[in-house]
Write a structure and sequence with these properties.
There is one protein chain. This protein starts with a helix and ends in a 14-residue tail after the last helix. Strands 1-2 form a two-stranded antiparallel ribbon. It contains eleven helices and two strands; from the N terminus they run αααββαααααααα. The protein is mainly alpha-helical. The radius of gyration is 17 Å and the shape is globular.
Length: 220
């Protein structure tokens, strides 16, 4: 019971923190469309992969929650998420810039409806892992409707990116160029082996989701 209460309190604190940040600036999607020049070279190219410190597909962010994008950029700026390219970009952004980019990418792409429950049920092993991590309690039963916009939609996200992210939470001090500091996610990810994290990532990434890659006209 104490463990459950501790986890619940951690979730409340994390939500309060990210939500307060997200509410400090109101994003303007039109303004964000004029500020995404440093984003489109990776996130708007189909199949684009990061190559350092390891190879994986960069995340789809079109259709993502605006508050989450803002919060993630702030974490890169502060160094709570370690990734040289994103940190180099984030440190140039103001709070308003982050909010505008969040608003832009949240509205970018098609409006996609997804089922309330995943069309593909997890196997027994993954079902146990999902229950152990209480994943649906934050990200929603279909992993596309998190309990707060400050949390990400993860259904349909690239599995290799999801795995690297989960491993980064598990090992926040993994190295100078990788790792993520987040009390809630670090505590959850630490419960699993890397193989289990990969199994979770592969299942969640296989689901129908609202995340997309929207190529810029100049790249089509």
């Amino acid at each position: 019971m104490n463990k459950a209460l501790t986890f619940g309190w951690a979730v409340v604190v994390a939500l309060a923190t990210t939500t307060v940040f997200a509410q400090e600036a109101k994003g303007d999607a039109t303004a964000g469309a004029q500020k995404n020049a440093m984003c489109i070279g990776c996130h708007n190219i189909v199949g684009y992969k990061a190559s350092f410190p390891e190879v994986y597909k960069v995340p789809m962010i079109s259709g993502q929650n605006a508050a989450y994008i803002s919060a993630a950029l702030e974490e890169y700026k502060k160094g709570e998420r370690k990734f040289p390219t994103m940190r180099g970009i984030a440190i140039t952004l103001t709070e308003q810039d982050m909010a505008d980019l969040g608003a832009f990418y949240a509205a970018d792409g098609k409006q996609i409806e997804v089922p309330e429950k995943p069309a593909t049920a997890p196997g027994e092993q993954v079902a146990q892992l999902l229950e152990k991590g209480a994943c649906v309690s934050c990200h929603g039963e279909n992993f596309s409707k998190p309990i707060s916009d400050a949390y990400p939609k993860i259904a349909g996200q690239h599995p290799d990116y999801l795995y690297v992210s989960l491993r980064g939470y598990k090992n926040p001090k993994e190295g100078p160029y990788s790792g993520r500091n987040n009390g809630v996610m670090s505590g959850i990810a630490a419960q699993f082996s890397n193989n289990e994290l990969r199994a979770l990532a592969n299942y969640i990434g296989s689901l129908d989701g609202q995340l997309q890659i929207v190529p810029e006209p100049r790249f089509r």
